[in-house]
Specification:
Arc Repressor Mutant, subunit A; disordered N terminus; 2 domains; mainly alpha
Length: 150
């Protein structure tokens, strides 16, 4: 596999973050390309052909402008999700307590935005009426059981 293929294989998941762009927020519009890479981990610098703006592939994530390695940030979030407190996580991973708090807050804000985006595009659930019927039947069964036990 060529190096250019490695860098351009998943560009359909990106969209232009420029609100004044005609392709703003449209994923898979084929207007995003790799302009360059930067940093020690070769983070891609993406470019929108419609508005000629450049942006990092990490923009809008908890990894954007991060000083810690990506695996350390993921470890912080995993520890907090498992129920470890901020101080315990900071001791285990040998980072500052404020660092754990900052990345936890960033992860929460990011997940909230992602949730809102996914809910906006989620299809309606056809099973809602079935769930209501099952719920009503369960309530009726409880009423019948109470009457019989008396």
């Amino acid at each position: 596999m060529k190096r250019t293929e490695v860098f351009t294989d998943d560009l359909d998941k990106f969209c232009c973050p420029n609100k004044s762009c005609s392709q703003y927020g449209i994923r898979g519009a084929k207007n995003i390309s790799v302009r360059d890479t930067y940093g020690p981990h070769h983070t891609r610098l993406l470019w929108c052909r419609s508005c000629n703006k450049r942006f990092s592939e990490r923009r809008g994530t908890i990894f954007f402008d991060a000083r810690l390695p990506q695996d350390k940030i993921v470890s912080i979030v995993e520890h907090v999700v498992e129920g470890n407190g901020m101080r315990k996580t900071s001791r285990l991973l040998k980072v500052g307590k404020d660092t754990v708090c900052r990345y936890t807050q960033l992860a929460g804000e990011h997940s909230e935005k992602l949730h809102e985006e996914l809910v906006a595009f989620s299809p309606t659930d056809r099973r809602d009426s079935i769930r209501r019927e099952v719920g009503l039947r369960a309530k009726e069964a409880k009423k019948l059981q109470r009457k019989q036990s008396r």
